[in-house]
Amino acid sequence: MKKMTSRQKSEAIWGLAFVAPTIIGLLILNYYPIFETFYQSVCKTGDFGIGNEFIGLKNFVTLIHDKEVFRTLFNSFRYAAVSLPVTIAISLVLAVLLNRKMKGRGIYRTIYFLPMVCAPAAVAMVWKWLFNQNYGLLNHIFGTDINWITDPKIAWISVIIVGVWSGIGNNMILLLGGLQDIPKDYYEAAAIDGSTGIHSFFHITIPLLSPMLFFIIQTGIIGALQLFDLPFMLMDQSSRAWPTVKTITYLFYEYAFEKGDKGYGSTIVVFMVVIIGIITFILQKTEKKWVHYE
């Protein structure tokens, strides 16, 4: 093996010095918490949060029999199952429309993307006012008297409405980028063969957008299952509708930070990691069946 020259050694040392802060940051902020979470999931938090007592799989046994875990998990899955398809459908339609030549196209793109740059707290405050039963704008416009965020039968729909509104802009930009990468030759050739716009959309646009759609679906499911801030800031935790929107991520927060039981909180996190891992594995296995690459 050829020995390094003094100049190469100096360059290697300087290179390591420059990347060292990033490496140290990853180890401390990313990898250490992962191992610590798995360790605490098999421990019982000591009195006043001091010390951990190893208890094996007792936390997992408790979790399996905990009805609240599966109720909050159902809330998370329901949010993902309803909000993601609606968000993708609206984003796709907007992306197709805004990909055409039209006046004010840049302004429209900016308007639809604005929710992504708004602070979640500000978004929750505005929607809380819109949903207010007594003086909210929605009830005023529609002439209704609906308890948007206090009725257990409607509250989860209200959370989904805000989630869809917040996510349209990001997905629209991603799909717009995918549309601009599709060669126009395909559409011209299809038009010559007598293909209609609808036929081209389903047989050209959708297949060629499938890699981007796959990315949006995969990241969207993971993001939806990790939902925390929206229901937390939009809903009052003392409301009778809170159990219908309480997510499993909030349940982790409740045990780990409000009740001080970091052991059981870590167990919930590990449980979610396993679920997300299974979903990701299934998606990766089905990718080849419907995702088409050029």
Structure description:
The chain is an all-alpha fold and 294 residues long. It has 2 domains: 6-58, no CATH class; 65-290, MetI-like (MetI-like fold), CATH 1.10.3720.10. Helices cover 74% and strands 2% of the residues. It is built from 13 helices and 2 strands. Strands 1-2 form a two-stranded antiparallel sheet. Helix 3 crosses helix 7, helix 4 (105-117) packs across helix 7 (155-180) and helix 9 packs antiparallel against helix 13 (262-290). The longest helix is centred in the first third of the chain and has 35 residues, at 6-40. It is globular and about 70 Å long. The two termini are 42 Å apart. The relative contact order is 0.13. The mean pLDDT is 87.
Keywords:
2 strands; 294 residues; two-stranded antiparallel ribbon; MetI-like fold; 13 helices; mainly alpha
Q: List low-confidence stretches.
A: none
In CATH, the homologous superfamily of the largest domain goes by the name MetI-like
Provide mean pLDDT, rounded. 87
What level of helicity do the residues show? over 70%
Q: What is the 3D form?
A: globular
Gyration radius over CA: 24 Å
Biggest sheet record: 2 strands, antiparallel
> Order of SSEs, N→C?
HEEHHHHHHHHHHHH
CATH architecture of the largest domain: Orthogonal Bundle
- Oligomeric form: single chain
Distance between the termini: 42 Å
- What's the number of helices? 13
Task: Walk across the major sheet and give the strand order.
Answer: 1-2
Quickly count the domains.
2
How do the strands and helices of this protein lay out in sequence?
Layout (H helix, E strand, L loop, with lengths): L5 H35 L2 E3 L6 E3 L3 H7 L2 H32 L6 H13 L2 H12 L5 H6 L12 H26 L3 H9 L4 H29 L3 H6 L7 H4 L2 H11 L3 H29 L4
Antiparallel strand pairs: 1-2
